[in-house]
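Good morning,

Attaching, inline, the backbone tokens for the sequence recovery test we're adding to the shared suite. The designed sequence is right after.
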């Protein structure tokens, strides 16, 4: 018997519109989901670090080629486009991952179509607005063109990121890491080539276009049959989606503004040189901050599923994530602070390295609250605590903007770095208080904190040994830090097990 008209229509839909009722998110219910997420986090973080090391090839060339002042102009546009990315995302990227992990079948397909349509429309509008702002603000023809080109690259990246949700929800970290590393390698190659041909600043801003296009093509191929390719332009659905996520959208927008709005404010009230010092130092911290995103990003599907089904499991996962976050945050702070002189010398000329290193030492302290805050806010997101996220992010942003206007006129780049540090620290404290106020049964055990701090103090003492070259001091401090953690039993068992499995897979003694 022939089906109803809507059923017959469904039968002839294109491959891009097939209802995708496969069970990838069911992987999150398997007993090994936690260990897989931990191994995936390590894979993503390793890929990110490899990409950052590749960036060490292009970053010094770019800063030295453009000079600190022109690099400040370049980074101003990069900050503007990043600001657009955060504002126009309105939380849809995070919501897409959470809902893909919690929904199934046709409901998930319809949701992903709506998200794809909304992100394309909002990002396009944001890029047009950013280009208009660059023109009105007097950035100059070259930077206005660069803003438009960087915006096109952003649009391509946003679409690719939407398709990548399915890979993250399936804990397919290897594919994601390989794709991200390949995109970074291509970007580095293009930047080096542009330096060699003495290109103008707008050409460097356009690097995201070819890298974004290639990434998108590969991502569509990797996720074929798992995410609908056709976006939904149903305005009613878009309005309902945005209305439901409005508090979260506000929180995500505010969270994106912190350092980016500091850069924009400095471009208006500070010297180009001061903006360049802050921008160069913050670029280093921004790269380092990608590590906790890579680490915790792979656990967010597990957090989302546990938040839906099993709060005992959620508490366990949150405990382990916070332990890893504190371990990583302290280590990254030590490495960045004590490597500031070396990093600054690599990135800039000798006369500019000192001021950049001074600012970088202040900004290095941001990494501890950043690591912890990503874990806390990911948990709040998994629990649909949108209003709490809006409140804490709004208060932190207000504080940062106020401190920027107060401190920058007198202390310039140092004042800007201090403003961001105070704001990020307050944000982390408020996120923790909000989570415990709403879900007191998720309170983590803190007995691991003294052990991690003790390991950090041992590493600090080693790094301060006089006469050691910077590289040697950093290596010895790292060894002392993790050796002390192991001796004190402060390394989570899942990390030890994952490392043992990795060694066993390669035929080495566990």
């Amino acid at each position: 018997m022939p089906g109803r008209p809507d059923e017959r229509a469904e039968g002839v839909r294109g491959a891009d519109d097939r209802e995708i009722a496969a069970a990838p998110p069911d992987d999150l219910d398997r007993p090994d989901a936690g260990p897989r997420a931990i191994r995936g986090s390590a894979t993503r973080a390793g890929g990110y670090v490899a990409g950052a090391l590749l960036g060490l090839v292009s970053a010094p060339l770019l800063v030295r080629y453009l000079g600190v002042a022109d690099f400040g102009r370049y980074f101003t546009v990069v900050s503007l486009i990043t600001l657009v990315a955060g504002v126009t995302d309105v939380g849809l990227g995070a919501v897409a991952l959470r809902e893909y992990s919690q929904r199934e079948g046709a409901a998930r397909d319809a949701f992903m179509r709506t998200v794809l349509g909304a992100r394309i429309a909002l990002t396009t509008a944001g890029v047009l607005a950013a280009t208009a702002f660059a023109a009105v603000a007097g950035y100059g023809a070259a930077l206005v063109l660069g803003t438009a080109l960087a915006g096109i690259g952003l649009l391509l990246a946003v679409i690719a990121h939407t398709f990548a949700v399915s890979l993250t929800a399936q804990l397919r970290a290897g594919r994601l890491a390989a794709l991200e590393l390949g995109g970074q390698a291509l970007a580095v190659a293009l930047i080096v080539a542009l330096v060699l041909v003495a290109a103008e600043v707008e050409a460097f801003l356009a690097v995201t276009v070819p890298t974004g296009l290639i990434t998108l093509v590969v991502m569509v191929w990797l996720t074929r049959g798992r995410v609908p390719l056709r976006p939904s332009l149903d305005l009613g659905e878009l309005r309902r989606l945005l209305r439901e996520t409005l508090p979260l959208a506000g929180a995500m927008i505010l969270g994106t503004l912190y350092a980016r709005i500091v850069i924009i404010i400095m471009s208006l009230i500070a010297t180009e040189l001061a903006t360049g010092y802050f921008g160069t130092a913050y670029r280093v911290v921004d790269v380092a901050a990608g590590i906790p995103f890579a680490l915790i990003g792979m656990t967010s599907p597990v957090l989302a599923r546990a938040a839906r089904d099993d709060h005992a499991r959620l508490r366990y996962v949150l405990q382990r994530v916070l332990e890893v976050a504190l371990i990583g945050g302290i280590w990254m702070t030590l490495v960045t602070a004590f490597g500031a002189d070396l990093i600054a010398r690599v990135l800039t000329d000798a006369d500019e390295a000192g001021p950049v290193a001074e600012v970088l030492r202040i900004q290095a302290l941001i990494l501890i609250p950043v690591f912890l805050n990503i874990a806390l806010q990911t948990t709040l997101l998994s629990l649909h605590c949108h209003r709490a996220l809006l409140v804490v992010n709004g208060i932190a942003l207000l504080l940062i903007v106020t401190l920027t206007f107060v401190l920058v006129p007198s202390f310039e780049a140092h004042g800007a770095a201090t403003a961001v540090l105070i704001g990020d620290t307050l944000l982390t404290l408020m996120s923790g208080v909000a989570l415990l106020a709403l879900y007191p049964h998720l309170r983590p055990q803190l007995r691991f904190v003294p052990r991690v701090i003790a390991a950090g103090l041992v590493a600090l003492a080693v790094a301060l040994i006089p006469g050691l070259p910077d590289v040697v001091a950093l290596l010895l401090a790292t060894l002392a830090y993790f050796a002390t953690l192991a001796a004190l039993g402060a390394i989570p068992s899942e990390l030890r097990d994952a490392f043992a499995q990795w060694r066993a897979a390669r035929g080495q003694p566990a």
